[in-house]
């Protein structure tokens, strides 16, 4: 039954092929695409254009694939169907097929006929057989006779053990993605013979360790989400091409021992157990001990970890979510190209300078993180940072200290002398930001800061400063002294400030200001100095905004958030200014204002401004009338007085003359 239907389909296809060729001729061929994505198809349509180069049949209910006669077809997407039977000759007439996507089907069935069909597509360059319930043997069968295969995806199958037979007929592979399987064993010789292999993704498997990493050709290696306890490479003088190594979400206790000569740029170590051993020294010697165990060296000859980290050209390391209680200063200072270090979500409480002394002297050595630009220390509980550590950050631009317990020190003018600097070093109860001359971006959000003293950031180059969420903080006059000309972005949200607590200097570079979530009722008039583009005043006690100030600001203002205040509808001339200038007010639809008749939406008010304030304006007019009366009265009085004084003067004058 099914075979006779197959014959019929084939017959029709051949008919349409010859028909088409007669009509158009080969010379008029153009690249053609056919898309039947998500059309509830139960079989391949019979009237396909023979000239098709791309055919998308994904997201249907196709269960069987019989001979396709599409001699120009280059790409076929049958992903997300229910394909479990591919007849022997199904691909025989697809001479040009290069890309085949069969992910999310049921290719674990009918292996005999399916894999036989597969053997005929030897030109294939890209194959996706993810999510097909495939075992080790099945994948090996599907990969037979694939000398041109460049890219392979086998995500989400049931591979457990990779053997040296797996890729022996697909040696040209450049990219292999076998993530989300159950692999716990990789036999020697599985990947080594693949000379072109550059990208290898083995994430989400069950690998327990990498004892001797040998793949010198690989540039990208993803081993995230396995159960790795260590990663070790034998220290040989061969060049590895490795550039990106992802070892995140494993159980590493130590830093990896990477190839001696490598090209590593990005090293992902987040979500491991590194640092759980007490000190840096203990960790380093344990790692070296492990290395000599694995390499069966009798004695631990040298510090292999440090000697190979010293040569690593890495620019980015993610160490977030590890177990560090102390900062591994010596090890990380070896990385002379390191630009970005993510040390967030560890358990540092203080950053002390725990570095071995100079052999000759008793002074601690000053090491440097000379290339480091971005340091993320958020969520560590840091309360103190030694000055010698700060001095090591000679090129720092971004420092994220969000969710710590840092107290900024006052001006460091008197700290310049070595004696007092040493005192601060001994008792680091506050952090001397003034030592970070190159610092541009600082977040001190939620540090429970008590006092922001004058000149706290003097000598830095701060352009953005986040002080949000320090509800007990007193901002002293002069706190921003020294950075008022460089600050472009300032966040003072959730500080529990009233308008009498907030006095800002003239800040001629400030473009972003966030003073949301306070108790403010006045915008500081000093802001007329600033070319503000973004302003957030949500959740305060504003009743109205200074009309002339808003008019001045509106020259630069692009966006303003203003909901959750206590605006008086009838004193909203300022809003008309913003509205008329088409300044973006993203939360205007949630902004209420009150009238004597109750609350209403500000947009509703704007649509018809006069009505609800009729009474209010009447009252104002009345008020105005009274004022005129008073003014008239005063004028009369004044005139009378002047005349009286003149008279007096004249009398006196004549008296003198
Ligand atoms: C397929 O189409 C149906 C409606 O025809 C739609 O509800 C569904 O989201 C579509 N699925 C995909 C994967 O595009
Ligand atoms: C195959 O199709 C799926 C969607 O069904 C897509 O996510 C996947 O990236 C495709 N594979 C390749 C290699 O393009
Ligand atoms: C490695 O794979 C994991 C899991 O699929 C993914 O989240 C991560 O982004 C990959 N890492 C890199 C560096 O591409
Ligand atoms: C550091 O890692 C944390 C946690 O994953 C992330 O939120 C943060 O954006 C990262 N920081 C940098 C500078 O990449
Ligand atoms: C440093 O300050 C702490 C309180 O923050 C105090 O207990 C300690 O005695 C001080 N140490 C020195 C050496 O002054
Ligand atoms: C905010 O300040 C008020 C007094 O102005 C005080 O009663 C309140 O406890 C403060 N809130 C916090 C979270 O510090
Ligand atoms: C803030 O100002 C209020 C008066 O508006 C005052 O009671 C309070 O002590 C001030 N808080 C600080 C931290 O200066
Ligand atoms: C202002 O700061 C608060 C608290 O940090 C934040 O939630 C809000 O998104 C900020 N506003 C803007 C416009 O970024
Ligand atoms: C309104 O702002 C202007 C500066 O634009 C200032 O001179 C004036 O004093 C402010 N008025 C009030 C009531 O704050
Ligand atoms: C406010 O609501 C109006 C009408 O519902 C809508 O046209 C406008 O885009 C909304 N504005 C914003 C900023 O969401």
UniProtKB/TrEMBL annotation:
Sorted alphabetically, the Gene Ontology cellular component annotations on this record are: extracellular space
Asked whether the UniProt record includes Zinc among its keywords, one would answer: no
User: What PROSITE patterns does the database record attribute to this sequence?
Assistant: LRR
Any Pfam family from its record, for instance, is LRR_8
Which UniProt key words apply to this protein? Leucine-rich repeat, Membrane, Repeat, Signal, Transmembrane, Transmembrane helix
* Record-annotated membrane-spanning stretches: 624-645
PANTHER family, per the entry: AGAP008170-PA, INSULIN-LIKE GROWTH FACTOR-BINDING PROTEIN COMPLEX ACID LABILE SUBUNIT
The name this protein carries in UniProt is Transforming growth factor beta activator LRRC32-like
- Organism, by scientific name, is Xyrichtys novacula
Lineage of producing organism: Eukaryota, Metazoa, Chordata, Craniata, Vertebrata
């Amino acid at each position: 039954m099914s075979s006779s239907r197959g014959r019929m389909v084939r017959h029709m296809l051949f008919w349409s092929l010859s028909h088409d060729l007669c009509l158009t001729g080969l010379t008029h061929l153009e690249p053609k695409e056919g898309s039947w994505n998500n059309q509830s198809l139960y079989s391949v349509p019979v009237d396909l254009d023979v000239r098709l180069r791309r055919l998308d049949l994904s997201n249907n209910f196709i269960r069987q694939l019989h001979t396709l006669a599409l001699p120009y077809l280059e790409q076929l997407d049958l992903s997300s169907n229910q394909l479990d039977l591919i007849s022997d000759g199904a691909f025989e007439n697809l001479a040009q097929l290069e890309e085949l996507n069969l992910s999310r089907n049921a290719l674990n069935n009918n292996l005999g006929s399916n894999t036989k069909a597969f053997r005929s597509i030897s030109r294939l360059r890209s194959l996706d057989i993810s999510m097909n319930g495939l075992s080790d043997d099945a994948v090996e069968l599907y990969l037979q006779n694939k000398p041109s295969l460049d890219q392979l995806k086998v995500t989400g199958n049931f591979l457990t053990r990779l053997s040296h037979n797996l890729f022996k007929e697909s040696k040209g592979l450049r990219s292999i993605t076998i993530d989300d399987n159950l692999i716990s064993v990789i036999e020697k010789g599985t990947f080594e013979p693949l000379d072109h292999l550059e990208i290898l993704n083995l994430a989400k498997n069950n690998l327990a360790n990498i004892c001797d990493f040998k793949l010198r050709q690989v540039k990208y290696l993803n081993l995230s989400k396995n159960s790795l306890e260590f990663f070790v490479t034998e220290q040989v003088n061969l060049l590895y091409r490795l550039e990106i190594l992802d070892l995140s979400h494993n159980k590493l206790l130590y830093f990896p021992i990477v190839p001696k000569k490598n090209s590593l740029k990005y090293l992902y170590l987040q979500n491991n157990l590194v640092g759980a051993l007490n000190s840096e020294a203990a960790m380093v010697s344990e790692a070296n001990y492990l290395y000599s165990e694995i390499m069966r060296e009798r004695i631990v000859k040298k510090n292999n970890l440090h000697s190979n980290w010293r040569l690593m050209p890495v620019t980015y390391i993610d160490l977030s979510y590890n177990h560090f209680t102390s900062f591994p200063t010596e090890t990380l200072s070896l990385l002379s190209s390191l630009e970005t270090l993510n040390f967030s979500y560890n358990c540092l409480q203080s950053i002390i300078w725990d570095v071995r002394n100079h052999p000759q002297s008793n002074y601690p050595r000053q090491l440097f993180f000379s290339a480091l630009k971005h340091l993320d220390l958020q969520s560590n509980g840091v309360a103190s940072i030694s000055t010698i550590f700060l001095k090591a950050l000679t090129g720092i631009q971004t420092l994220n200290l969000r969710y710590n317990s840092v107290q900024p020190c006052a001006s460091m003018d008197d700290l310049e002398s070595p004696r007092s600097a040493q005192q601060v070093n001994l008792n680091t109860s506050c952090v001397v930001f003034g030592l970070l001359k190159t610092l541009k971006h600082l977040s001190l959000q939620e540090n429970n800061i008590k006092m922001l003293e004058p000149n706290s950031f003097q000598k830095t180059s701060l352009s953005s400063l986040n002080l949000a969420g320090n509800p007990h903080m007193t901002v002293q006059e002069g706190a921003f002294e020294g950075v008022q000309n460089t600050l472009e972005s300032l966040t003072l949200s959730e500080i529990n400030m009233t308008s009498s607590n907030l006095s800002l200097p003239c800040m001629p570079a400030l473009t972003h200001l966030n003073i949301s979530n306070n108790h403010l009722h006045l915008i500081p008039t000093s802001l007329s100095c600033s070319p503000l583009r973004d302003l957030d005043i949500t959740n305060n006690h504003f009743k109205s905004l200074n009309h002339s100030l808003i008019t001045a600001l509106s020259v630069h203002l692009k966006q303003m958030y203003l909901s959750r205040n206590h605006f008086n509808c009838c004193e909203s001339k300022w809003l008309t200014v913003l509205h008329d200038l088409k300044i973006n007010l993203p939360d205007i639809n949630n902004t209420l204002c009150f009238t004597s008749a109750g609350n209403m939406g500000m947009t509703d008010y704007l649509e018809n401004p006069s009505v609800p304030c009729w009474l209010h304006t009447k009252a104002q007019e009345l008020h105005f009338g009274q004022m005129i009366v008073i003014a008239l009265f005063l004028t009369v009085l004044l005139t009378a007085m002047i005349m009286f004084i003149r008279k007096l003067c004249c009398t006196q004058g004549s008296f003198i003359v």
